[in-house]
């Protein structure tokens, strides 16, 4: 029997939420953060990957929905695993959104709160992130910043994502 069709393997699939996040920077090196109404502190733009959705497309989709910015993201900067606690275990993928122009920083628009779940968005100096984010969120961003220029390509079935 083919392993992918073995009913024992499909009976109880592992449950892990995948998050797709975008590290986007201004020309000054400030990091774009959003302020979700369900969390304390700011976070990178992004959100959950839908079933069978390529993670880089989920990251771009959430970035656009949360900020109005359209970016192509295919370079992976960090992978952050969080064990199960009150939520499912989580695997967060941080993609490089590159740097935006000063003009684009002024185009960031957060949809109305009732539809977006966001209080707002802003660019913040990386030196001040620890005061704005939870320790785990800050560590994720700092590691992604440290990996700039050393990003991994995203592969889809062995091929580089377009």
Describe this structure in words.
This protein is α+β, with helices and mostly antiparallel strands and 162 residues long. The chain has six helices and nine strands, in the order H-E-E-E-H-E-E-H-H-E-H-H-E-E-E. The protein has helices spanning 7-11, 55-67, 102-105, 113-116, 129-132, 135-146, and strands at 16-25, 31-36, 46-48, 75-82, 89-99, 118-124, 152-153, 155-156, 159-160. A five-stranded mixed β-sheet has the order 3-1-5-4-7, sandwiched between helices. A two-stranded antiparallel sheet has the order 2-6.
Hey, roughly how much beta strand do the residues contain? Answer: 25-35%
Task: Write down the overall mean pLDDT.
Answer: 87
Please provide the count of β strands.
Answer: 9
Helix- and strand-based class?
alpha+beta
Order of helices and strands: HEEEHEEHHEHHEEE
**Main beta sheet strand tally, sense and closure:** 5 strands, mixed
Instruction: Please give the radius of gyration in angstroms.
Output: 17 Å
* Fraction of helical residues: 25-40%
Descriptors for this entry?
single chain; 162 residues; alpha+beta; two-stranded antiparallel sheet
Helix-strand layout with pairing:
Blueprint: H1 7-11, E1 16-25, E2 31-36, E3 46-48, H2 55-67, E4 75-82, E5 89-99, H3 102-105, H4 113-116, E6 118-124, H5 129-132, H6 135-146, E7 152-153, E8 155-156, E9 159-160
Parallel strand pairs: 1-5
Antiparallel strand pairs: 1-3, 2-6, 4-5, 4-7, 8-9
């Amino acid at each position: 029997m083919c392993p992918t069709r073995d009913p024992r393997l499909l009976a109880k699939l592992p449950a892990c939420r995948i998050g797709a996040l975008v590290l986007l920077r201004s020309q000054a090196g400030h990091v774009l953060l959003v302020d979700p109404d369900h969390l304390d502190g700011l976070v990178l733009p992004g959100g959950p990957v839908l079933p069978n959705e390529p993670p880089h497309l989920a990251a771009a989709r959430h970035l656009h929905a949360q900020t109005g910015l359209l970016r192509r993201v295919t370079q992976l900067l960090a992978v952050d695993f969080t064990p199960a606690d009150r939520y499912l275990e989580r695997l967060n993928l941080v993609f490089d959104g590159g740097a935006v122009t000063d003009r684009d920083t002024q185009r960031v628009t957060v949809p109305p709160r009732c539809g977006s779940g966001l209080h707002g968005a802003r660019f913040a100096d990386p030196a001040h992130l620890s005061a704005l984010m939870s320790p785990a969120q800050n560590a994720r961003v700092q590691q992604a910043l440290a990996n700039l220029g050393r990003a991994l390509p995203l592969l889809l079935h062995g091929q580089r994502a377009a």
